Amino acid sequence: MSTPFFFKTVILIIFVGIIILNFYKIVLARRIICHKTDWNVQIKMEEMKGELCMSEQLKKKMMDMLDESGVGTLATIRNSKPFSRFMLFFYEDLTIYAATNKNTHKVEDIETNPNVHILLGLDVKNANGEYFEIEAKASIDSSPESRQKFWDEKLRNWLSGPDDPNYILLKLEPEHIRYFSKAGEHPEELSI
């Protein structure tokens, strides 16, 4: 083997190694690790020059959307078929709540299968606008504190008040969130 060929080979190997190392750094810097602890979702991400973590941005967008309208659809499973209905949603951190009467099919559905799907956003005025798809686990919350905290006068059409014996909350804990900034675009995703 000649000396010039040997040096060219070594330089090529070093160059390829540097490219692979830089690619690994980029992938590592964008990695998001999410885990649950004591009902709080803690999101860790390596510092990216003072920018908000993508998952924090998604969380803020979702909360802004819930603050703006609060209306979306909730799908449950009954007899292996999906059933959807419009709901008024509330939230605390990443946990979403929906008020309902305890004597409804959706409560029976959730007791049988806690997997639900939520759609938020996208209205008739803005058919190409942003929206969220959220896969969640549902449970029932009938505590007086939660019922009082999430009571909204808009619920009077279905329930008499926060002390109505039939008033319960569906506690919806997201497992996977997809955000579409525009219809037809690829989503930003967050698994929890």
From TrEMBL:
It comes from the Bacteria. The keyword Cell cycle does not apply. Residues 58-179 form the Pyridoxamine 5'-phosphate oxidase N-terminal domain. InterPro entries: Pyridox_Oxase_N (IPR011576), Split_barrel_FMN-bd (IPR012349), Stress-Dev_Protein (IPR052917). Keywords: Membrane, Transmembrane, Transmembrane helix. The chain crosses the membrane at residues 6-24. Coiled coil: none annotated. This is General stress protein 26. It comes from Cytobacillus oceanisediminis. The lineage of its organism: Bacteria, Bacillati, Bacillota, Bacilli, Bacillales.
